[in-house]
# Entry
Amino acid sequence: MGELLGDPPEILEWTAHPARERPLAAVLLIVIMIAASVFASRYGGSLWWGLVGFFLLALSLWSFFLPTSFRMDDRGVVKKSVFGTEKRTWREIRSFTVDSRGVLLSPFPDPTPLAKFRGLSVQFSSGNREEAVAFIRSRYLGKPAS
# Structure
């Protein structure tokens, strides 16, 4: 009944897969990765450097290419990916920053560069930005950073 009145649901779940949602960007990114790998192979004088370069680029961009599942409830946020599960309770989150692609949930009360390393990055799926932000605002105990 709370949902009929505009309240956020008790549980919010979704899977974000940016490469599937933005296929042109994914193709362009793969072309750039291949070009950089070819350059590394030629400049380094070995195919090995190209393979290492491609692997490192792919590893750094895993959150774009691989799906990530999110679950928010009254206890906190859970993020599941191929690399494991991250959890944060609402008490741990002292500020958050919203951008066009997601939310950074930070353990720090004020914006700081360390938030990217200690916080939890939550990616939106296509069309759920407002719903996810409303859910966070309804459970969050502090004030948003932006």
Notes: The first strand starts at residue 12 and ends at 16. The chain has two domains: 12-17+68-139, 23-62.
